[in-house]
Design brief:
By secondary structure, this protein is an alpha/beta fold. It folds into 2 domains: 32 residues; 198 residues, 3-Layer(aba) Sandwich (Rossmann fold). 39% of the residues lie in helices and 23% in strands. It is built from 11 helices and 9 strands. The strands form 2 sheets. The protein has a 7-stranded mixed beta sheet, covered by helices on one side. It has a two-stranded antiparallel ribbon with strand order 1-2. Strand 4, helix 7 and strand 5 form a beta-alpha-beta unit. The longest helix has 13 residues. The chain is globular, with a radius of gyration of 18 Å. It starts with a helix and ends with a strand. The protein binds S-adenosylmethionine (SAM).
Length: 244
C-alpha cells in the first residue's frame, strides 16, 4: 500500500467524514493488497458511477480510454435509435456508458449470476430503467441481432504475468480466456458474431496485444471489414468489426 492509495480512499470514500472503525478496517484491506477500487466500493467510468459490490472485474484504463476515443465516431455513425449488446458485461460499465451517449435500447449479458445482480444495481445507480439482462454462455441464450456489440471477453493467456493482487482478488472467470493463447472464448465469439450483428452493425472487441495476428486470420476468413486499433500505451488492444 502506498500513501497515494490512502489519500484516494479518504478523498473518494470518506470525504470529510471519517468513521474511525471503518477506516481502520479499510486500511487493513489495503495492507492485504485488496484493490483500492474494491475497498472504495465503486469507480468512475467516463462519469458513470460503477459500483463494485459483487466484485466484477474493475474497469481497466485501456477500456475507458478507447470507449472515450470512439465516442464521437459512434455518435456520428449511429444517428437513429439502435440496439446495443454489452456481452461479457461484468459490471456493465461499457453498456451503461454507451447507452448514455447513444439513442439506444441496451441489453447486457454475462455468464455469472452475481454479475447479473451487479449490472442491475449499476443500471439503477445510473438511472437506466429500460434494459434487458440475459444470463448466457457467450451467445447461447442470445437470439436477437444488434447494431452495436461491445465485447471485452476474458482473453488473458494462462501464462501471462499478472499482478499478484489481481490474481488474488479479481475474478479469474473475467480474466483468462480458454486455451494456451487465451483465444478460446474469442474464437467462439467471432464464429457466432455474424448472426448477431445487424447489417451495417459494428462490434468493438478488446483483446491481448499478442492475439492480433490470430484474430486477423479469423477475420480474414469472414466477410467482415475491420480496423485494428492501439491503446494509449501503443499496444494493439481492440478491433472495430463492420458488417457491411
Ligand atoms: C474482462 S471481463 C469484462 C467486464 C466489463 N465488460 C469491463 O470491460 O470491465 C469479462 C466478463 O466475461 C464474463 N464471462 C466469462 N466467460 C464467459 C462466457 N463463457 N460467456 C459469457 N460471459 C463470460 C465474466 O464473468 C466477466 O464478467
Amino acid at each position: 500500500m502506498d500513501l497515494k492509495e490512502l489519500n484516494w480512499l479518504i478523498k473518494e470514500k470518506y470525504k470529510t467524514n471519517i468513521n474511525l472503525n471503518n477506516f481502520i478496517k479499510d486500511f487493513k484491506k489495503l495492507q492485504k493488497n485488496i484493490p483500492l477500487d474494491y475497498v472504495i466500493g465503486e469507480t468512475d467510468f467516463l462519469n458513470c458511477k460503477i459500483n463494485l459490490k459483487y466484485k466484477p472485474l474493475i474497469p481497466r484504463v485501456e477500456t475507458i480510454w478507447y470507449m472515450e476515443k470512439e465516442t464521437n465516431f459512434l455518435k456520428q455513425y449511429f444517428k437513429n435509435k439502435i440496439e446495443i449488446l454489452d456481452i461479457f458485461s461484468g459490471s456493465g460499465c461499457m453498456g451503461i456508458y454507451a447507452n448514455k451517449i447513444l439513442n439506444s435500447n441496451i441489453t447486457f449479458s454475462d455468464i455469472k449470476n452475481t454479475f447479473l445482480k451487479q449490472i442491475k444495481l449499476n443500471c439503477m445507480i445510473n438511472n437506466i430503467h429500460n434494459y434487458t439482462i440475459i444470463k448466457s454462455n457467450i451467445f447461447k441464450k442470445i437470439n436477437k441481432q444488434y447494431n452495436l456489440i461491445l465485447a471485452n471477453p476474458p482473453y488473458v493467456p494462462k501464462k501471462d504475468l499478472i499482478q499478484k493482487s489481481v490474481l488474488q482478488y479479481e475474478p479469474s472467470i473475467a480474466l483468462f480466456g480458454k486455451g494456451k493463447d487465451g483465444l478460446g472464448i474469442i474464437s467462439i465469439f467471432l464464429k457466432n458474431l455474424n448472426s448477431h450483428l445487424k447489417n451495417n452493425g459494428i462490434c468493438i472487441l478488446e483483446f491481448h496485444p499478442n492475439q492480433k495476428e490470430k484474430i486477423q486470420d479469423i477475420l480474414d476468413q469472414s466477410n467482415f471489414k475491420y480496423i485494428f486499433k492501439k491503446d494509449q500505451y501503443l499496444r494493439d488492444r481492440y478491433v472495430l468489426i463492420f458488417k457491411k
